[in-house]
Structures are given as structure tokens and as C-alpha cells.
Amino acid sequence: MRLAFWLMDRFGVPEPLVGDLLEERSRHRSALWQWRQTLVAILWTVARDIRAHRWLAARAVVVGSQNVGTLS
Length: 72
Fold this sequence. Notes:
Mean pLDDT: 89
Low-confidence stretches: none
Number of strands: 0
Distance between the termini: 38 Å
Strand content: under 5%
Largest sheet: none
Order of helices and strands: HHHH
Structural class: mainly alpha
């Protein structure tokens, strides 16, 4: 489960949420449950960050789409 916690750290999932998931994992939740919760936490965090920084997100999409054409 180290990978799950590393991913949550990498994507900036709030520490209280990570702590809650760690606590639930210690209560013998399944690995499938842990991964499902990890993915939801990451998606929630990414969506929250995109909403908070709409212009930066839009700019990243535009710049990224322009670079895709240069890779061919």
C-alpha cells in the first residue's frame, strides 16, 4: 500500500484524508477498498485544483495540445 500513499502524497491529497484512509486500512479493509478510495481521493483533489485554477488548467491543455503536434 506504499504506492497508494505515495500517489496520494504526489497528487496533494489532504493529509487528514490520507490519515482517515490509513486508519480504515488498519481496521482490515480490503486492498480493493483501499485502491478505490485512493483513486477517488486523487480524482477529487485534481478536480478541486482544476476548479481553483481554471486559467492555469486551460493554459496547460492548450500548451500540451500544441506540443503533441510537434512530437510526430
